[in-house]
Every structure is written in structure tokens, then in C-alpha cells.
Amino acid sequence: MNSIADSFRFLLSDLTGVDDCALPAAPDGLPDALRTEVAEASAMLIAYQGPSYAGLYVSRLRRFSRRRDVDAALLGLIAREMARRMCYDDPIRIAQHHLVTSDPGGAPVVRHRFRLDELFSALPGKIGRPLLMGCERAGWMHLPVSMRFNARSGAGRLRLRMEAGLRRWRPFSARYASERAWVERWLHMIDRSLTKQPAAAWAVADTSAMIQGSGDGYQRGLSDWHSLIDGIIKPALDGTLPVGDLRAAVDEIVMLSRGGSTERVAAAIARIREEAGCGV
Which residue of 83, 166, 199, 258 shows the fewest CB atoms closer than 10 Å? Predict the structure, then answer.
């Protein structure tokens, strides 16, 4: 199936909520050493959202598995990080996880902290958007909310099943749209790096590690990532920012971001731009 037909099928599945896609086959050119890993990722994505979602993963991976300038190590990094990012942590995902991994009767009651805007952005757009607008007007976007996940009791597991059942509506949420756009931009930057500055391709692919979990940490990492792309990577690949060693610059920002210092990230980006003669 070509990529245009793939995209149409994924879109149709999202719009109808009916996922009758065939189980995805491994992409052409996939090294034998990665076949088990990609198969496990596909199974995880089927459990997360359905066969068409796993098909989207395989279709995205196929863009790189056919390239001669992508070795097995880089392809493995892309495959792992893309699967992780496509299984982003929202309340639906947490409920799914506790249903599968918790032992009824012996499972602990677990609390997860989210931001209020995260909860509203996980709802279908017609419901979530007005709530997000009201939340923003009231200044409650960053308000922390603790959610209880109880797989111990029958009532608790029933609630988890109801929350996990919202999976069907996930593709209609603002969070789904933003995550899908993020993954596409990340893959586009890897693709451009392979063409323009192949020595930096690994570092560009590894920038996904900046974004982890949920809550304030997730939002901080996402903000740092966009600052890195817009401030250094994109202009360097466009040829407007002559960074001497793009890989080293990217590695530095990733390390600072994972250390939890947005201020140091911003300062380092400004310094790298100034050293490249572009100013801030």
C-alpha cells in the first residue's frame, strides 16, 4: 500500500472510529536485528489505539528503512523513540496500563498528577476546546490535578475500563492533533539533517528524549524542544545559522534540558547563536 493510501485509511479510521485495518507488516529494508523490536512496538501501539495507529507507525518508519544513509543503529533509535512518543501519557493511557498490569485484589491505589489543561486537551475537541478556553481565561492552565487509579476493587476497575474506553475518542482530541504534528516535525528534522548535515542526524533524532512523562515536566521539555528546533536546528539546516558543530550544540541543549533548567537552555541557545554570528 502506498503512503497516500495509508494516510487516507488512517484518516478514515480516525473519523469513523472503526478500525478494521489489517495488522501492519514490517517495513521494507528493516534489518533482521530490529524485526522483533518493531513487532513489539506495533503490538504496543495496537493496544494503545488500534491497528491503523500501528500502521501509521510502520508507514512513518518505512520512510527511513529504505534509505541507504540510515544505518541499523539510527533506525533503531527512530523506531524506539517514535513508538514511545506515539504512546504519550494521557489519563486514557494510564487507565489502560493499570488494567493490564495490576492484579485485582492486590493492586495498590495509585495517584497520578496532571495539569488541568492536559486533562481537557485529552477530551474530544467539541468538549475540550471550550473548557480549555475557560481554563485559560481563569488562569487555571497550570493547575495541578491528582487522579486516582484504583484496580483493587470492582468499582475501581469499572471506572478504569470506562476511562480506557475513551480510547475511541482520543483521535478527536486537541492533544492527539498536537502530538501527531510533533512527531511529523521531529521526523522532518531528522530527514533534513540526513540530507544537509548527516553527522548531526543522530543528535537530532535523540532530541525526543527531552520530552518525557506528563505535567509540568512534559510541558517544560516540549517548550525546550521547540526552542532548540526554532533557535538552532532549523536555521542551521536552512543555512542561515553557520553552527560549527551542530551535533555538539544539539547534545549540549538536550543535556541541559534533561537536567531540568529551561533558563540554562535559553542561555545556551542564545550563546550558540551569538557565536555563530547570528545574534539573538
Answer: 199
